[in-house]
Amino acid sequence: MPRGSIDDLMFGNRKILDMRSDPSAMAAIGLWTLANSWCNNQLTDGFVPSTVLAYLGGTTELAELLAKHKLWHKVEGGYQFHDWEDCNQTRAEVLDKRSKDATRKGNTKTHHKISKAIKRMESNDSDDSFQDDSGWNPDGIRAESEAPHDGFRSESEAPSPSPSPKEREGANADAPNGAAPGLRKRPDGPVAKAKHELKAAIAGLAKAHGHAAPPTPSKAHLASGASKVVALVESGAEVVAAAERVARAAYEHLGNRKASSFGWALNDCVIPAEKPKPVPGVGMSQDERARLLP
């Protein structure tokens, strides 16, 4: 919005001093001031139509007094401020500034939108998730509060069948750096590997139980289950077998509860001691041992 400007020396201007002897001088100065505001608002470059004098509270006599002392000039259709552009912006200057301001504000909004989009992309790229061999993205697991009411995905969201641990190991063994073709490299570190195998084991058990998709434990519950896998590995178990034991124990602990409670089961389950493998001949009767002999 343009603003009118009044010279700070106007009170001592020669034209004002000469006009002050007239009884209507102060009324004329009031008309001059309001007309200044109106011209800036309407962008008339200081032109005051005769038709607006009454609207501004003025009269033709007051306008003629201003023209007499050369504060205004009488022109066709009204009056013109003397040297308007010396103290006020012209219409062209105001419109040019408005155009530049609109462009600047528009570019700023566009810049903010692009910046937000880049931040979202960077946030997604920084996620340490990886694609499981089964086609199910483990780190895409939703929190329990966001899971479906029954804890499982719908049939339309069902993942492709999960390969067995042996198939998975074989595929990775044939690929460079231990990663199957088309898959990301397996994660490094005991905890990351434990999470990887635990997710695969959960997916396999979900399929075995006839579920459309694996349950959805939170990341905190998944980390708790992975710590149990790591503990079993440190005691001498293979990581794949340890992950299957933990997943199986969680399913048994879940019982008849809804799958949405699987995270709780994974966190609270107790891993049973592994039963020793039977040794041929130990604890057998003589007849049983005799049947084993050639």
- The gyration radius over C-alpha positions equals 43 Å
Distance between the termini: 108 Å
Shape: rod-shaped
Domains counted in the coordinates: how many?
2
Oligomer, anyone?
single chain
Helix content: 40-55%
| Count of DSSP H/I helices | 11
Q: If you average the pLDDT, what whole number results? A: 74
Our estimate of the beta-strand percent is: under 5%
- Poorly predicted ranges: 125-160, 173-184
Biggest sheet, in brief?
3 strands, antiparallel
Biggest β-sheet: strands ordered side by side in the sheet: 1-3-2
Succession of helices and strands: HHEHEEHHHHHHHH
Number of strand elements: 3
Class per helix and strand makeup? mainly alpha
Q: What is the secondary structure topology, with strand pairs?
A:
Layout: H1 14-19, H2 25-42, E1 47-49, H3 60-68, E2 72-75, E3 78-81, H4 84-87, H5 91-125, H6 165-174, H7 190-208, H8 219-234, H9 239-254, H10 262-268, H11 286-292
Helix pairs in contact: 2-3, 7-8, 7-9, 8-9, 8-10, 9-10
Describe the structure.
The protein is rod-shaped. It has helices spanning 14-19, 25-42, 60-68, 84-87, 91-125, 165-174, 190-208, 219-234, 239-254, 262-268, 286-292; strands at residues 47-49, 72-75, 78-81. It is mostly helical and 294 residues long. Helix 8 packs parallel to helix 10 (262-268). Strands 1-3-2 form a three-stranded antiparallel β-sheet, covered by helices on one side. It starts with 13 loop residues before the first helix and ends with a helix. Strand 2 (72-75) and strand 3 (78-81) form a beta hairpin. It has two domains: 10-87; 138-268, no CATH class.
